[in-house]
Amino acid sequence: MNHTKIVATIGPASIDPDVLASLIDHGVSVARLNASHADPKWHANAVSTIRRIAPQLPILMDIPGKKIRTIALAHEPSFDVNDKIILTTDTSHDGSRKVPVSWPHLNKKLKAGDIILADDGTLRFTVEQVDGLDIVCIAEVAGTLKSRKGINVPCLSGCYPHPLNVG
Questions:
Q1: Measured between alpha carbons, how far is 43 from 12 in angstroms, rounded to an integer?
Q2: What pLDDT digit, counting tens, does each position of 140-155 carry?
Q3: How confident is the model over 115-123, as a mean pLDDT?
Q4: Degrees (nearest 5) of the Cα angle 82, 155, 36?
Q5: Residue 33: burial class (beta carbons within 10 Å; 0-12, 13-18, 19+)
Q6: What's the CA gap between 123 and 148, in Å, rounded?
Q7: pLDDT for 19-75, tens place per residue?
Q8: Overall pTM surpassing 0.85 (yes/no)
Q9: What SS3 string covers the chain?
């Protein structure tokens, strides 16, 4: 008796009916949808497609917890070490000059010298100053800050209650 399960995360590249059928033919036993990405309409369409192709296939919906993220960006800025990058709580920006974040109070909780990590810690910034809604940072590593990437602020976890539970 085989108890091994193969969980496949279904996304834009694998939701195609032919690709999905091939995955199932090759042993996928659970379809995982990551609700941290895409919107509810995309997920509803994905569930319909999965149900049409494999009605009995279990679907695992991985729902996101509370998390600070960059919002969807039209421009994903690249930078070198020591470059300035501006994070902002003003969500009207598109990433070309400032990178908006999802938590509207982040600017109120930071000060010069605080560390900000992004994209699972692969990007690291030091806050140079907070100017209104803007958080002016210095990049400590080169990289690209992409859409919907997680933002982690280590000092918030120890200095304040959970950032998404305060106003």
A1: 10
A2: 999 999 999 999 998 8
A3: 93
A4: 85
A5: buried
A6: 14
A7: 999 999 999 999 999 987 788 899 999 999 999 999 999 999 988 767 899 999 999
A8: no
A9: CCCCCCEEECCCCCCCHHHHHHHHHCCCCEEEEECCCCCHHHHHHHHHHHHHHCCCCCEEEECCCCCEEECCCCCCCEECCCCEEEEECCCCCCCCCCEEECCCCHHHHCCCCCEEEECCCCEEEEEEEEECCEEEEEECCCEECCCCCEEECHHHHHHCCCHHHCC
Contact 165, 67 (CB under 8 A): no
What's the rounded Cα separation, in Å, for the pair 130 and 101?
Answer: 14
Instruction: Give the angle subtended at the CA of 15 by the CAs of 33 and 76, to the nearest 5°.
Output: 75
Q: How confident is the model at residue 160 (pLDDT cuts 50, 70, 90)?
A: very low
- Which domains can be identified in the chain, with CATH numbers? 7-62 (no CATH), 68-165 (2.40.33.10)
Residue 158 has pLDDT above 70, yes or no: no
